[in-house]
Amino acid sequence: GNCWDNAPQESFFGHFKDEASIKACSTLDELKKEIKQYMTYYNHYRYQWNLIKMTPVQYRNHLFQAA
């Protein structure tokens, strides 16, 4: 591989660490809930410049409609 192979994952985890409130979690269940909430936010509400300013779910649906 090359250095660009991990770029999408590194970008995601960078945003996750900046935007999720994982430090406030004191139990595993709280952490799981916070991760689930962030994933819902990321996939359904957080617009991505690389996805022509759509959320990942909107972009996926856009691709299915175009096919």
Features:
67 residues, mainly alpha, 3 helices
Description:
By secondary structure, this protein is mainly α. It has one domain. Helices cover 61% and strands 0% of the residues. It is built from 3 helices and no strands. The chain has helices at residues 7-19, 28-44, 56-66. It is globular, with a radius of gyration of 14 Å.
The backbone outline, from C-alpha atoms, is globular
**Any idea what the radius of gyration is?**
14 Å
**Portion in beta strands:** under 5%
Q: What is the number of helical segments per DSSP (H or I, 4+ residues)?
A: 3
Q: First CA to last CA: what distance?
A: 30 Å
Q: How many strands, what sense, and barrel or not for the largest sheet?
A: none
Query: What is the number of beta strands?
Result: 0
Number of domains: 1
Helix/strand order = HHH
The helicity comes to 55-70%
Low-confidence stretches: none
The mean pLDDT is 92
Structural class by SSE content = mainly alpha
